[in-house]
Design brief:
alpha+beta, three-stranded antiparallel beta sheet
Amino acid sequence: MTVVVDKVKELISKCLQARDMAYCPYSRFPVAAAILTTDGTIITGCNVENASYGLTVCAERTAIQRAVVEGYRKFTAIAVTCDIKDRFVGPCGACRQVLMEVRHTYLL
């Protein structure tokens, strides 16, 4: 159990670190995600905005795409963070779609 707790703490820590890398000059809303693979690797992503808002890439999709490019196909957990402290903020519709597809394809 301690190993699992330690891995979750590491997942959250890396997620918070990735949030500092967010490129969000328009919304000023930094978001990050960290994915835990079945072998214990943690892949992170952050939001990267664009002046053409539709070209912005969210943190969740960045993390998933990085994981796939790096050869990971099996995931056990994901952490997502933003700078709102008093309430939960869920993924956008596009990220929910990608997460659902990944869930059916890649999650254990």
